[in-house]
Write a structure and sequence with these properties.
By secondary structure, the protein is of the alpha/beta class. The protein is built from ten helices and seven strands. The chain has a five-stranded mixed sheet, with helices on both faces. It has a two-stranded parallel ribbon with strand order 5-7. Strand 2 and strand 3 form a beta hairpin. Helix 2 runs antiparallel to helix 4 and helix 3 runs antiparallel to helix 4. The radius of gyration is 27 Å and the shape is elongated. It starts with a helix and ends with a strand. The relative contact order is 0.10. The N terminus is likely disordered.
């Protein structure tokens, strides 16, 4: 684990490469091939799982037909039983074999660490967050808070009452509203969030907007348990996560220090 942590820490300042994780081009080709085969096998599991039920329904008719027309009946019964045998071989032998080969590859763990490092490195770039759709922004922010040690639940798109994410940790509940706008949001949004916080009986709230906030928003939240998170704050949180990968998430602060946690403001 120590070597993995050292490699991850070394990646905070440059794009991850396979060599950072002891992977060669051949390793990547083999693992990606096994991964592709495992995904294909997984996609075919459902059709194969339904096959025994279909065979079970058809087989009695085949056996009944066997009494009427012995030659045709035997042929149909044999075909159905062969199909059942192939299904069982696929589900019980082939699929587990592919998965075992993938998971037992000596470089598979390094491959997982590499792909995760690439993802986290991309998330440390401003363009990643600015180019997300509204729903993707909610999901990625929830994932970030999960990695920081919170329990994060994304609410349903309809009937969320202005709450996109519900965070819990240490018996505290925090509601989050996400806005993926091209311009700073105004006071109406934060007033809605404040009302939702009271309605939910939450301990505090977070308004996350990649484009920042107007001065009116910053004035409204003064003295209220509401944090304003813009893209710069998100990037600082991601940077903290990347650099402190070895630490327990309880040591990671929820937001930047009070002096700069209000995010960008626009007149």
């Amino acid at each position: 684990m120590g070597n993995s942590i050292s490699r991850l820490k070394a990646l905070t300042n440059h794009p991850p490469t396979p060599a950072d994780f002891g992977l060669t081009a051949e390793d990547l080709a083999v693992i990606k091939g096994l991964e592709s085969a495992a995904k294909t096998a997984e996609r075919w599991q459902l059709p194969f799982l339904t096959a025994p039920a279909i065979i079970g329904l058809v087989l009695p008719f085949a056996l009944a037909f066997n009494k009427v027309n012995w030659i045709k009946g035997v042929g149909l019964s044999t075909f159905l039983l062969s199909g059942l045998f192939v299904t069982l071989v696929y589900l019980l032998v082939f699929v587990p074999f592919i998965e075992r080969r993938l998971h037992r590859h000596p470089k598979y763990r390094g491959y997982l660490e590499f792909t995760d490092a690439v993802t986290q490195y991309e998330k440390s770039k401003r363009a990643f967050w600015l180019n997300l759709s509204g729903l993707a922004f909610e999901q990625q922010l929830a994932d970030l808070y999960t990695r920081l040690g919170f329990s994060a639940n994304v609410t349903k798109a309809s009937g969320d009452e202005g709450v996109d994410i519900v965070l819990t940790r240490n018996r505290k509940t925090i509601i989050v509203q996400c806005k993926q706008h091209s311009k700073p949001v105004g006071p109406a949004i934060v007033r809605e969030l404040y009302g939702a916080m009271i309605s939910f009986k939450a301990d505090s709230a977070i308004l996350a907007c990649t484009s920042g906030f107007t001065v009116g928003v910053s004035r409204f939240v003064k003295g209220k348990p509401i944090e304003l998170i813009d893209v710069d704050a998100i990037l600082r949180m991601q940077e903290k996560l990347n650099s402190d990968v070895v630490n327990n998430a309880q040591g990671v602060i929820l937001c930047p220090p009070h002096s700069d946690r209000r995010g960008r403001t626009a007149a």
